[in-house]
Amino acid sequence: MVSGPVLDEKAYVRGGAAQTAVKILIVGHFAVGKTTFVGTMSEIPPLSTEETMTQAGEEIDDLKGVRGKTTTTVAMDFGRLTISDHVVLYLFGTPGQQRFVQMWEDMARGALGALVLVDPERLADSFAVIDLIEQYGLAYAIAVNHFDGTPIRGEEALREALDLLPDTPVVTCDARDENSSASALITLVHYLQDRAR
Ligand SMILES: Nc1nc2c(ncn2[C@@H]2O[C@H](COP(=O)(O)OP(=O)(O)OP(=O)(O)O)[C@@H](O)[C@H]2O)c(=O)[nH]1
Ligand SMILES: [Mg+2]
After folding, report:
1. What CATH number is given to the structural domain containing 61?
2. What is the pTM of this model?
3. What is the CA(178)–ligand 2 centre distance, in A?
4. Which residue's CA is the closest to the ligand 1 atom numbered 1?
């Protein structure tokens, strides 16, 4: 089993200044853009565990609506992002497939919250992920990852379809784009901070 570094207050110290390390999960269904997101946001070369998808997996991994994807994450993605003098985010991307669900136990340990990436064209695929996050009691924000050419859905329709609580943040991003991905993360961090108050 993969387990993350032990994270507690002031777990990470750099340049003599105490920094609080915050473990954040980047979750979402198969091929929603988790690895891309961690790669876009990480200030260190991201650890990724991509393997080429083979014909053997064709019947297991639902490739419907997935564009030009040749690899999949088999263990996790890992990246780091310093957001202030005091706070460092450790980003853990979970594998998207249902068969890796047993890893969530380890991944969720010590996490403060999760960013749930959602493809608006495959909304139903997000139900199981959101159920899992709620099961682990993690606070989360939704980041709608807009793939090229997909229609923009209204936020209200999306909230209703995903059965979100009124205070759950919903933002739009492109996992390949640093600015929109950063604002999605910042929205999550603010939400987590507000809840902690
Ligand atoms: N157009 C567009 N393509 C994207 C975006 N984000 C990711 N992609 C592409 O979508 C595909 C899937 O992205 P990944 O980052 O591998 O998705 P993943 O969620 O890590 O996939 P698994 O680990 O296999 O579940 C890749 O070909 C990406 O280049 C996006 O915002 N817009
Ligand atoms: Mg991946």
Report:
1. 3.40.50.300
2. 0.86
3. 17
4. 147
